[in-house]
Structures are given as structure tokens and as C-alpha cells.
Design goal:
The protein is an alpha/beta fold. It folds into 3 domains: 50 residues, no CATH class; 133 residues, Leucine Dehydrogenase, chain A, domain 1 (Rossmann fold), CATH 3.40.50.10860; 163 residues, Rossmann fold (3-Layer(aba) Sandwich), CATH 3.40.50. A 5-stranded mixed beta sheet has the order 1-2-4-3-5. The protein has a 5-stranded parallel beta sheet with strand order 7-6-11-12-13, sandwiched between helices. It has a 3-stranded antiparallel beta sheet with strand order 8-9-10. Helix 12 links the parallel strand 11 and strand 12. Helix 5 packs across helix 17 and helix 6 packs across helix 7. The protein is globular and about 65 Å long. The two termini are 26 Å apart. The relative contact order is 0.13. It binds NADPH dihydro-nicotinamide-adenine-dinucleotide phosphate. NADPH dihydro-nicotinamide-adenine-dinucleotide phosphate binds next to helix 9.
Length: 444
């Protein structure tokens, strides 16, 4: 059995009931085969892949808090510190009822390669809780965040592990988490990113993942002889990533016509009204039915369906495994020629393979959504030098980083004879730096 197959079998056997983690490892190791085979004996002797798929540390803890009725609630808290070969652990916190250890491990594993691709000195980690902020009062969210941080603060620090936001964790949650960290540790340091602008946050961090997705998509299209201008774009999600992807797409002259949340989706042939979307989702924290009620050109549909719309480019920006094989077939049938992932692993393995076989340009999230974590690393730099850069400065750096990421994954795919396979290119380019650093640091 080849070394890659041995490790894939080991991951499934040792991590039962963690399908998302198996899926993420399979996608990465399959595309690393060519690189591993070049040096199989040495990698096997050093158990490099076993170390790569095993987190350096996992912290799991109880999060008790009191709701508005005086009832005590208990949630599970997680932080997976996956790999610190190239820098302190860095990766978001997700608050969503679906969160479990396998999901946090898949996200942490992906984060290792993504962070490497940014070219910045950040290792990979991820955390979160099965707490659902939806429908909770601000006081309840604060009580939860304070309890969560009371334990988490023992394991993180500006030079150790720097969490950020993810699904269900936005500016409000980061504020409460930062306040509690400072109170307990008596340290005013850049321990979290995505902070508010009055207390160490970076301009353009809020926009960074969505904007970065479009900068990379524009470059990918350009290098394949196409222009993003005037293209019809289908976007899923209506949160941080989706909102700013829609905004930047419009600024680049494209027309995003859809968005979605966990209950339904919008088709707006006139193009999504970003200000209205922000008012409904960011300010009122309401459902998309409110968007449709205020916008005559919009149609609201219950359930899923964003990928059934005719579009040139698809940008899945909601959650994992939201674009399956049937969706991919519909996209191809309707003339879609490019898919770039804003969310983490939104496309299933079968759908990814199908899209690639059909010659669709496909960019995996670990490259196309890396603008968020890259800008988080820029926030860390600003915190360390106790300075704040302008929006333009940060946005220019972000554009440069996304263009570089595209070229490094494109070059890696060409170097290994898989031109245009950006999944393989991203995994190979991300892997090489981490593997070299792990080798140099000995058996740790
Ligand atoms: P938000 O919480 O701001 O928004 C998530 C959106 O996706 C919401 O519209 C939500 O609907 C929808 N959604 C969430 N879970 C589901 C589900 N199970 N089924 C259907 N819809 C769902 O999160 P973000 O925008 O920050 O994150 C979106 C994706 O991007 C995630 O995969 C995240 O890991 C990834 N990502 C985020 C980065 C960031 O900087 N924020 C950086 C890199 C990747 P509803 O409103 O109903 O909850």
C-alpha cells in the first residue's frame, strides 16, 4: 500500500464519526500523491503525514451560562491547535449548533494550508462551540462569550494562538470575547482579530474575505482569457463573506443576482441591493423574507436553490457541502464556467471532480477565501507595532496577496503536470512550506 493510502486508512480508523475531517484529509492527501511519491521513504520514516493530520493539541471544555429566564445552559467548547510550524496558531471560532470536534478538525486542517498560502507567518487552528447565537439576546450572547473565554484564555495569546470570527462570530462576539480576555489576563494584546476599530481592529478586515474572493476570481478569469465585468454571478450565503463578495463583484462591474440563508434564497434579476441586505442581516439580524418584502424585483424561495439560476460564475459563501453533484450538473447545464469557494469546503468531492472534468475553472476555498486570514495577519502586525494602516493600504496589500496566491497555485499545478487543477496546486503550494518547516524543526 502506498504511504498516502496507509495514512488515509489510519485517519478513518483513528477518527471515527468525523466525515468532514476524513473528506478534507482525503482531498489534500490525494492531490499530494505526486509530491509524496518523489520522497516517499523519507516522509514515511519521519511520519510526516501522520504528524500533519494529527493536531498538536486539542482543548475541549464545558461552557455553562445563564439564559434570560435564569435557566443554566451548557454548551461544548473546542479549540484545535493544529500546526504551528510556520507561526502561531491562527483560525476562526465558529458558533453554530452543528459544531462538533470533527467539523473543527476539518476546518483546522484546511487552515494550515490556507495560512501557508498567504505567505505570512501563521500556523493553523480553529475553534468554536455548538452554541447558537440566533434568537439570543445581547446579554445572553455576552454571558456565553464570557464563559467561553474564561476557559479559552488559558490556551491562547498574541504569540501563541490568535482566534478570529467565523460563522456566528462577528464583531459583537469578538468584542465580548476580547473584553473578557483582557479582564482575566490583564493584558491588552492582539489576541483576537476582527476587533472593532476603536480597540485594535484593522480597516478592511470586515470586507477582506469577500473582497479577496473577488480579487482572486478576477485574476483567475483574466489568466484564462476572461473578464469579470458584466458577468452574472450566483452567490450563496448572506453573512460576512457573501455580503462583501456581492459588494466587490458589483464594484468590478459584475452582477450578483442571488443570496441565501439557512431557510431560503433570493433571486434578484436587477442585482442584489447590498445596502438593503446589510440592513436586513447585519443590523436587524432578520430573515431574507424581509429583503424580498422591501425589494419589488426580488423573488424569495424557501429551501435551497441558488445553483439552479443561470449564471456565469458561482461563489458558494455559506457553509460546507452546500454544492453537491446535482447542483454542479445544473450549473454546467446553465453555462456557468467558473466556481470559486468563499466558504470552507462548500463543494462536495464528487461535485468538485465533476466540475473539473467539465473544464470549469475551480478554485478551492483554502486559496480563494484566504483574504480573511491574511488580513487578520495584517491586523496582528498593526497591533504589534501599535499603529493603524489606512483602508487603502490594507486593501492594496490584500489585492497583492490574492494575486500572488493565484499565481503560486497556478505555478504549482503546472510544475506537477496538472495545469489548471487549482485544487492540487493549492494543496501542493500550501504543503511545501509547512513540510519544509516541520523537517527543519525536527521530530516535534
Ligand atoms: P456568517 O455567520 O456571517 O454567515 C453564514 C451564512 O451562511 C449565513 O447567511 C447563514 O444563514 C448561512 N449558513 C450557515 N450555516 C448554514 C447551513 N448549515 N445551511 C445553510 N446556510 C447556512 O459566516 P461567514 O460569512 O463568516 O462564513 C461563511 C463561510 O465562509 C464559512 O464556511 C466560513 O468558514 C467561511 N470563511 C469565513 C471567513 C471570514 O472571515 N468570516 C474567512 C474564511 C472562510 P443564516 O443567516 O440563516 O444563519
Amino acid at each position: 500500500m502506498s504511504y498516502v493510502d496507509e495514512v488515509l486508512a489510519m485517519v478513518v480508523a483513528k477518527n471515527p464519526a468525523q466525515p468532514e475531517f476524513h473528506q478534507a484529509v482525503k482531498e489534500v492527501l490525494e492531490s499530494l500523491r505526486v509530491v509524496i511519491e518523489e520522497n516517499e521513504e523519507e516522509y514515511r520514516r519521519d511520519a510526516l503525514l501522520e504528524r500533519l493530520v494529527t493536531p498538536e493539541r486539542i482543548v475541549m471544555f464545558r461552557v455553562p451560562w445563564v439564559d434570560d429566564k435564569g435557566q443554566v445552559q451548557v454548551n461544548n467548547g473546542f479549540r484545535v491547535q493544529f500546526n504551528s510550524a510556520i507561526g502561531p496558531y491562527k483560525g476562526g471560532l465558529r458558533f453554530h449548533p452543528s459544531v462538533n470536534l470533527g467539523i473543527i478538525k476539518f476546518l483546522g486542517f484546511e487552515q494550515v494550508f490556507k495560512n501557508s498560502l498567504t505567505g505570512l507567518p501563521i500556523g493553523g487552528g480553529k475553534g468554536g462551540s455548538d452554541f447558537d447565537p440566533k434568537g439570543k439576546s445581547d446579554r445572553e450572547v455576552m454571558a456565553f462569550c464570557q464563559s467561553f473565554m474564561t476557559e479559552l484564555c488559558k490556551h491562547i495569546g498574541a504569540d501563541t494562538d490568535v482566534p478570529a470570527g467565523d460563522i456566528g462570530v462577528g464583531g459583537r462576539e469578538i468584542g465580548y470575547l476580547f473584553g473578557q480576555y483582557k479582564r482575566i489576563r490583564n493584558l491588552y494584546e492582539g489576541v483576537l482579530t476582527g476587533k472593532g476599530l476603536t480597540y485594535g481592529g484593522s480597516l478592511a478586515r470586515t470586507e477582506a474575505t469577500g473582497y479577496g474572493l473577488l480579487y482572486l476570481t478576477k485574476e483567475m478569469l483574466k489568466c484564462n482569457g476572461k473578464d469579470i465585468k458584466d458577468k452574472i454571478i450566483a452567490v450563496s450565503g448572506a453573512g460576512n463573506v457573501a455580503t462583501y463578495a456581492i459588494q466587490k463583484a458589483q464594484q468590478l462591474g459584475a452582477k450578483p443576482v442571488t443570496c441565501s440563508d439557512s431557510t431560503g434564497w433570493i433571486f434578484d434579476p436587477e442585482g442584489i441591493d447590498v445596502d438593503l441586505l446589510k440592513e436586513v442581516k447585519e443590523v436587524k439580524r432578520a430573515r431574507l423574507t424581509e429583503y424580498a418584502a422591501k425589494r419589488p424585483s426580488a423573488q424569495y424561495h424557501e429551501g435551497r436553490g441558488v445553483w439552479s439560476v443561470k449564471c456565469d460564475v458561482a461563489l458558494p459563501c455559506a457553509t460546507q457541502n452546500e454544492l453537491g453533484l446535482e447542483d454542479a450538473k445544473m450549473l454546467v447545464k446553465n453555462g456557468c464556467f467558473a466556481v470559486a469557494e468563499g466558504a470552507n469546503m462548500p463543494t462536495t468531492l464528487e461535485a468538485t471532480e465533476y466540475l473539473q472534468q467539465q473544464g470549469i475553472l475551480f478554485c478551492p476555498g483554502k486559496a480563494s477565501n484566504a483574504g480573511g486570514v491574511a488580513t487578520s495577519a495584517l491586523e496582528m502586525s498593526q497591533n504589534s507595532e501599535r499603529l493603524s494602516w489606512t483602508f487603502e493600504e490594507v486593501d492594496n496589500k490584500l489585492q497583492g496577496i490574492m494575486v500572488n496566491i493565484f499565481h503560486s497555485i497556478d505555478n504549482a499545478s503546472k510544475k506537477y503536470g496538472m495545469e489548471g487543477n487549482y485544487v492540487a496546486g493549492a494543496n501542493i503550494a500550501g504543503f511545501q512550506k509547512v513540510a519544509d518547516a516541520m523537517k527543519a524543526q525536527g521530530i516535534v
